[in-house]
Design goal:
two-stranded antiparallel sheet
């Protein structure tokens, strides 16, 4: 009887994990639009590190620009 209960728990956990994985995959696929190679980068505003004034990517058009974009999650 205990073995059947353990197998039921394992099956229940497997179903929950697979459901979570599938749900996560669908939200990842339907995420933000991607930028194709050769397509211009969108004009995103960002704060200056010096004084916090707003800058834009368009202000650097034709120049070399390094963006370090990261997320903490």
């Amino acid at each position: 009887m205990a073995v059947e209960a353990d197998m039921t728990d394992v099956l229940r956990i497997a179903v929950v994990l697979l459901s979570t994985l599938l749900l996560g995959m669908t939200s990842f696929v339907a995420g933000a639009p991607r930028i194709a190679v050769g397509e211009p980068f969108p004009d995103l505003p960002f704060p200056s590190l010096d004084d916090g004034r707003p800058l834009s990517v368009a202000a650097y058009r034709g120049q070399k620009l390094v963006l370090h974009i990261f997320a903490s999650w």
